[in-house]
Amino acid sequence: MTTTDVTLLTLGGDEVSVGASRIAELGSRLRGDLLAPGHADYEQARLVWNGMIDRRPALIARCRDVEDVVAAVRFADEHELPVAVRGGGHGVAGHAVVDGGLVVDLSPMRSVEVDPAARTARAGGGSRLADVDRATQAHGLAAPLGVVSRTGIAGLTLSGGIGWLRRAYGLTCDNLLAAQVVTAGGRVVTAGGDGDPELLWALRGGGGNFGVVTSFEYRLHPVGPEIMVAFVLYPGERAAEVIEFCASYTATAPEAVSPLCFVGRVPRTEAFPEEAHGLPYAALAAVHPGDPAEGASVLQPLRELGRPIVDLSGPMRYTEAQTLLDEDYPDGWRYYWKSVELDELSPDVVRRVLAHAAAAPSDHSTVDVWCNGGAMGRVPADATAFGARPAVLLGYEANFEDAAAADENVAWVRDSIDELRPFSTGGAYLNFPGFFEEGDELLRASFGEANYARLVAVKNALDPANVFRFNGNIAPTA
Ligand code: FAD
Prior knowledge:
Layout lengths: L5 E4 L5 E4 L1 H10 L4 E2 L6 H4 L13 E4 L3 H13 L4 E4 L15 E4 L6 E4 L4 E5 L4 H9 L3 E2 L10 H6 L7 H4 L6 E8 L3 E6 L4 H7 L8 E8 L1 E2 L3 E10 L3 H14 L7 E6 L14 E9 L3 H8 L10 E2 L2 E4 H4 L12 E9 L4 H12 L7 E6 L2 H5 L13 E9 L5 H15 L19 H8 L1 H14 L16
Helix pairs in contact: 8-11, 11-13, 14-15
The structure holds flavin-adenine dinucleotide.
């Protein structure tokens, strides 16, 4: 706890000094810690996963329960402070931390309760994917989440959530049944269930615009625990064929399977043959959530496109499959990601993707091709805030270690995406957002105009002063 006054930056941009006694009073109300500059944990607590983000909040409230969140949000309200909300801290745009304002940090709120009979789970707003998977898999169940276990469920769910189960069971947000939310001013409301259905609609894709979500309740599905995974790296010269196969296989494969293809250069690690290190590859990956023997036969075609660089496929526990890509994204490296949504994968697009991948300045960057459809694709555009469901999502990930290489990596992503825009539906996946430099235009195109108008109405009702603005921001008009 701080014993000195703290200088804060108000929403209006003015610097104000808040007395030590007022800060101490907030600290005494919290069960969790309140960190200000000078606190031993402050420097670590202000960091997020993306090392490109270097911000210094005035206060970080490490919330342990909903009452802590209410106290923090009321304090922000009283002092007209900008509020950033931190779930897992893995948002690529770094919106979980703000200069001069207050961070409502939910990282201590990671408990998960499962009701196996009802096939539901309720998870704290700071949970990581691994927390939910561990708890649900104890009952042979899973919520459809993303593919890297260390990332947060909050950002994932609030802007969609695509993973290995998307064609079988939909996006993460499609499986959100209810949520507890602390809205501006510190009111605790329920979305869904017996609570506000319109707020639940908005939380299913509309991002962190409406308040702090302190818990998420998900519908669960039978998965594993032992499942079959296909994960094969083919040589770069076969890349066009591999990408096109990903699309054609997806068109006829059972919906249980949600393939992902990505192109990059072979990591220089023991998992890969040394002679291939640094060479271009095209990877095909998919999970079959059912019986492993059936999964092996359904996934076999993904393993038969000729001689691979390496075939890491095999039966494994679902929780292990969820960690297969974890090591590719070290904390504190630099990341700049963007995406485009497409109706189809034309040969013209494939040619461009391969030219872009070959030109990537960093060996750790990839271009990811998510082939969708199935349960995810069937949800009507107006059923959730997420909007229209793209048949294909292209994700461009600049992943690099060296701060001095930022400009060329950012330019690589921006220029590549610009070149693909003529082929795009106009929308992007808001969980792979770069730094939202396109602003409003991109949001409108991604949600669709009708959904955007409906989201503005929810925002006007719940947050007319735009307290929650560090996100893909839906500006209130009230
Ligand atoms: P944070 O940085 O904590 O927050 C992100 C945003 O959500 C911020 O605007 C924040 O204010 C808001 N927010 C956070 N918590 C709350 C809350 N409790 N209430 C209200 N608002 C909140 N996405 C996929 O769909 N599928 C994938 O497979 C996938 N893989 C990924 C792999 C890696 C390595 C990374 C870094 C990201 C991946 N993503 C994926 C994208 C990921 O879903 C987003 O980055 C997401 O925002 C991370 O959530 P978080 O809670 O960790 O983020």
